[in-house]
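Hey everyone, long-time lurker, first post.

I ran two proteins through the pipeline my lab uses and got sequence/structure pairs for each. Pasting them in order. The first:
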Amino acid sequence: MAISSIGAGSGLPLDQLLDNLRGSENGALKLIRTRASTAQSRLSGYGAIKGAVETLHAAASEMAKPATFGAVKASVDGDAITAVASASASPGEYRIEVKQLATHQTLTSAGYAERNAALSNGAISLTITLANGSTQTIAIAGSDTSLQGIASAINGASQAGISATLVNDGSAKPHRLMLAAAGMGTDAAVRAISVAAAEPGTDAAAVQTLLGFGSDAGSLAETPAKRAEVLINGIAMSSENNVLDKAIEGISLTLAREGASGTLKVATDHDATRTAVEAFVNAYNGLQGVIRSLTSYDAGSQTASPLAGDSLARGIQAEMRRALNASPDGKALRTLAQIGITTNPSDGKLNIDGGKLSSALKRNPDDIQAFLAGERGIGSAITAAAQRHSRGAGQLTQASENMSARLKELDRQYNTASARIDAKMELYRKQFVQLDATLARMNAVSSYLTQQLSMLGRLDDKR
């Protein structure tokens, strides 16, 4: 409600006085806002630490995975093959010669002048038998026995094991039906195609001539399927397709070029371990940086960070540092410094000597795995510490919930105090309005009396 007119009648600065009173009352709101800002900063700080702890937990868990230390990599020279190694592969070297690539069987019909002319006067049934013994019978209406209709019917049968297309060779009878086996190799090839009338009076001879294959005579010319054939270290192997998953334990080979050869080398992949260790160190340093930033105090400006002096933040920092001292019993490795990881005394962050770490991984991978990823290793110790703080009932979660509750309470206090101040200011305003009106009336009476007395004085002078 506007109050700028208060004081117009009395001539007193009542509106300014009312503003000063509100400013004085608002001091309580400023105090609550300051407390809320502090609580929000602490809540954000706990959230930042929790995020950094979870990142460290994830990095420690990744470092503790067996695959991180048991990884192998495959490399190939030449373009004969490509290879992918799994964790079950063993280091070794293999000479591979691709004698023959696996191919699909194709069947091509004689040429026809028309592609949409029906070849039967009634419905037919088409039975396709594959070399593996599976069969599929397709019913085709008489009106659909053209080259186009037969191709559509075959492609619409999902279990037929073949696909159909029409090709045009540009001759007088250009249209040919081409069938291709869905799978590579001889087992997926078509063994026979037979045609039969599906209703009395149907003449299926022309369709038989088009599609008959195997025991039934027809026009289909075959390009036979072939199995893949390779030599691995002089041992002959064959496959129905060009991907060999079981020829070498833990290796998936994809044959790429017929008549070519190459050497496959399978070696231990220390890069995976090094990457996991580097990610762990970065995550640890990230946590240390977050805690250091949130708990610092600038003596020059006398400014404290949101969690300066916070025992929980300092406790987490100290606990993570202690976890770095974990080591399995009976192992030669006892400290991170032995594998090239040292602590910077100025900020508590870790530094990696890449050369020393690589050398240690090559020289003693089993002890490093036990030291970093074993049951009593650093990864397990970090994981246990992280879970105590960041899980559902962890200390960071509880601290964040307490701060959230504190913010809600301060918000309630602010709303209550604001409503109280608004009510008090409204009371003041009403009182000032009354005061202004009273003083205005008194001023009017005073002016009237002054005027009357002045007139009386002039009358006395005239006498």
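...and the second, right after it:
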Amino acid sequence: MPQRILVVEDEPNIRQVLKLRLEGAGYDVVAVEDGLKALEEVSHNLPDLILLDIMMPKMDGYEVCRRLKAKFETSRIPIIMLTAKSSANEKVEGFECGANDYVTKPYAAKELFARVKAVLQWSKTQRDANPLTGLPGNFSIEKEANDRINSGIPFAFALCDIDNFKAFNDYYGYHRGDEAIKMTASILLKAVQEKGTGKDFVGHIGGDDFVYISSSSNAEIIGEQITSEFDQRVQFLYNAEDRKKGCLEVKNRRGEIERFPLMSITIAVVRSDSDVIEHVAKLSDIASELKIHGKSLQGSVVVCDRREKRTEQQKASTSKTGT
């Protein structure tokens, strides 16, 4: 389904040219001649982007922008201002009203299309971002994975899942659960930044599930830093008594005491050069299988290509079995 653009321009010739050119580029375009009609149109059908002229009769672009940004349902619609002037003060006023970008008349078609494409992509990414961590969500994760597959350059896809999170969240409450999620996001970002290449990606699927995408050679190194730091920091999310016991003791509905270990993290790494990966679904399927295996092991663990690679703490522990 094509993305929908609302053009608000009082000059008939410019309005028609914009409509034809944008439609030629594959967009669904609605064009109106003033600010009042723009607000009316938006109230019926929310566009994906608004190209908004500043100088118009009845209501100028600044006021239209202010009214749209003041309402929750329209506040996230991206706006590119169209102006015949290029003064700094005019641009500042537009940005203060909530505009995302500016195009100065007369404008080149290539520049306009580039700005439209960039703002639409930014908007989609913003809508997709997880509100708790700010990390890219499922749309961005799938796009990034597809781009890597299509490039033909080897990469690694790592699925990260917090073990025993539900028990922790139920016992301590959602606020403490959110702290665990945000802590995990910060650990992933730090590890990718310190051990990655600068071209790596971190995403948040939702809940306690995360993804990072990196080079095949760095994926396990990143995973090892994540598991190590997670194990060091997670214990401080627990009360001293529970931390000392090394578990949560919860009475179930039958009145029986159930014990849940402290949270750990399982990382399932899939290398694109170790299997034929043609689509994201296969990446997800292999990673899910690996994750099941990883969760059958004790503590934080990195499982890669169906072989687990444990943390140094696990290697030193005789109570944990290997394969």
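Reply from user beta_strand_b:
Welcome! Quick read of the second one: The chain has two domains: 4-128, 138-315. The two ends are 49 Å apart (CA to CA).
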